[in-house]
Amino acid sequence: MGGNYTQPKFILLGITDTPWAQAPLFGLFLLIYIITLAGNIGLMVLVWVAPSLHTPMYFFLTHFSLADVCYSTVISPKMLTDLLSGDKTISWAGCVTQFHLFALLVTAECHLLAAMAYDRHVAICHPLSYVLVVSPRACWQLVAWSYLVASLSALLYTGCTFGASFCGPRRVDHFFCDASPVLRLACSDTRGSEAAIFALATANGLATGAAILLSYGRILHAVLRMRSAPGRARAFRTCASHLASVSVFYGSLFFMYLQPVSRHGSRDKVASVFYAVVSPMLNPFIYSLRNKEVKAALGKCGRRMLNLCRHQRGAARGIRESWNGLGWKGP
Asked: pTM for the complete prediction?
């Protein structure tokens, strides 16, 4: 990395340089970030406290929500600060760290979505052996595999992106350190790095995408063979949330990374906003609004909290009455 020491900082140009648009965008993205944190953390807590959600599908979903929270936090706070601050610089180490964590978490999400598709495939196509095949040990192995592959891929992505020499302008035309805008600043030949990034992104995207398509192909075949219409509807309903999440995530991700770096342009920011900022906010709603299990668990937890509050108020009222009977006047 010969150029790393001559370029200790980068400047993130951000989403827009229009002064009047930055304050409204700050308010919008701050709201999205708060909803993202509240929705995903709330979903993780709900799965943790509701015994009815202690199933493999929701085990994978908690890790998916955790990845959403983490990679949104890698991107959003810096983006929000830059929208209001005149200083949009980011250190070399900060840029490398941001990109590395982002690449790791996004790649992990691809593999987690494939694991969730496999879970649905076994649940619908092989229901009698589901407990044995998708055991707690198998779930942990799939999650560990997702993070292992993501960690190795992120190391390669980061090495290819920041291994070039940077001796020209330091202005990154993006709101975070991503591969294509950073590589445009390199003054050395980046064709090998571009090819390696494209090949690795294709391998991860197409491998996990193929696993998802294969799983749902078998699910569709099994569902069409069902004689019961309610059974078919129930099977489709269990897959609807996951399919919606896959469509949102992979659609924008494929647009961004399954094309050569030379073809990237101004539309990249729009796609990046969608999968890096908006998609993590949507996932909790996708998995809760049309999911009877989540809505039932949420209602049960709500009633439990309401009963607890009533019990505490009743206990406090009883204590005050006891004090009054002893002649002590409280506040």
From this structure: 0.83
